[in-house]
């Protein structure tokens, strides 16, 4: 692959991680000139550019070598990591640092009439989720056989629509669950925004830029702790 001497960071264009992500980059000394389409932002102080994308695309952009770092939810990173593992491959990206914002959990939630005692209560149930790999992995570890119904959105209304018996979804305050008469019964994963990087070191000038950036980021994160 062509050697590059500038670093590229992928971050969410608009959503729950975009503001805190931009703030963290600013406090780590990064400044960007915004382009008209606001997808590619040129780094003005450091040789570090920013690509604004959908969060789900971030692990793939790192895997393809299009971006060198990414700010993404651990839930998205682990889901895509497990997709590789379930194919018998090694994921080409890894979690480098936890960033302390975007906290949420991947949890199971059941309708009020559902009797849940422990994971065995889920045997034979249909579970709606946008995280099929994480859910299947958890079910396998619990030794429970259940049907995973993959939905790309509006997971919380699946039980009411008769598409599933319960759901496995991201929860932060629990307000969405309450509004849909769902009760949280188990946590599969504690999540927050993380800094993602390739599984292997870069072989050109970019690794030096990464090392310098991580040092500054650690300073910023330490102040916050
Ligand atoms: P995109 O358009 O980039 O695909 P999205 O709708 O998939 O956006 P958001 O809803 O902005 O994504 O969520 C981004 C991340 O924020 C999640 O992957 C998760 O890590 C984190 N997050 C924190 N709290 C919540 C929550 N209550 N619900 C969903 N995600 C949350
Ligand atoms: Zn998304």
From TrEMBL:
Q: What does the UniProt keyword field contain?
A: Amino-acid biosynthesis, ATP-binding, Cytoplasm, Glycosyltransferase, Histidine biosynthesis, Magnesium, Metal-binding, Nucleotide-binding, Transferase
- Reaction catalysed? 1-(5-phospho-beta-D-ribosyl)-ATP + diphosphate = 5-phospho-alpha-D-ribose 1-diphosphate + ATP
Into which family does the record put it? Belongs to the ATP phosphoribosyltransferase family. Long subfamily.
In the record, biological process GO terms are: L-histidine biosynthetic process
* Residue span(s) of domain ATP phosphoribosyltransferase catalytic: 54-218
The residue range of the signal peptide is none
Write down the EC number.
Answer: 2.4.2.17
Places the protein is found: Cytoplasm
What cellular component GO annotations does this protein have? cytoplasm
Its function? Catalyzes the condensation of ATP and 5-phosphoribose 1-diphosphate to form N'-(5'-phosphoribosyl)-ATP (PR-ATP). Has a crucial role in the pathway because the rate of histidine biosynthesis seems to be controlled primarily by regulation of HisG enzymatic activity.
**Pathway(s) where this gene product acts:** Amino-acid biosynthesis; L-histidine biosynthesis; L-histidine from 5-phospho-alpha-D-ribose 1-diphosphate: step 1/9
Task: Explain the regulation of its activity.
Answer: Feedback inhibited by histidine.
Q: What is the protein named?
A: ATP phosphoribosyltransferase
Query: Which cofactors is this protein said to need?
Result: Mg(2+)
Molecular function GO labels: ATP binding; ATP phosphoribosyltransferase activity; magnesium ion binding
The UniProt entry lists the main location of this chain as cytoplasm
Q: What is the lineage of its organism?
A: Bacteria, Pseudomonadati, Pseudomonadota, Gammaproteobacteria, Lysobacterales
In terms of superkingdom, the source organism counts as: Bacteria
> Gene that codes for this?
hisG
């Amino acid at each position: 692959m062509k050697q590059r001497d500038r670093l590229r960071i992928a971050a969410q264009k608009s959503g729950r991680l975009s503001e805190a992500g931009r703030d963290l980059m600013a406090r780590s000394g990064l400044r960007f000139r915004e382009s008209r389409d606001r997808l590619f932002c040129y780094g003005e102080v450091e040789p570090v550019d920013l690509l604004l994308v959908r969060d789900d695309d971030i692990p793939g952009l790192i895997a393809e070598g299009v971006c060198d770092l990414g700010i993404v939810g651990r839930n998205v990173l682990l889901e895509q990591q497990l997709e590789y593992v379930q194919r018998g491959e090694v994921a080409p990206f890894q979690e480098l640092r936890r960033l302390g914002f975007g906290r949420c959990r991947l949890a199971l939630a059941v309708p009020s009439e559902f009797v849940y005692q422990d994971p065995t209560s889920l045997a034979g149930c249909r579970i709606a989720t946008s995280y099929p790999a994480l859910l299947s992995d958890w079910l396998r570890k619990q030794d429970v056989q259940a049907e995973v119904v993959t939905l790309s959105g509006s997971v919380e209304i699946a039980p009411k629509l008769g598409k599933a018996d319960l759901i496995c979804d991201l929860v932060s305050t629990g307000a969405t669950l309450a509004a849909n008469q769902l009760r949280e019964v188990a946590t599969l994963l504690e999540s927050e925004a993380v800094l993602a990087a390739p599984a292997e070191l870069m072989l050109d000038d970019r690794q030096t830029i990464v090392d310098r950036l991580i040092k500054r980021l650690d300073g910023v994160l330490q102040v916050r702790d």
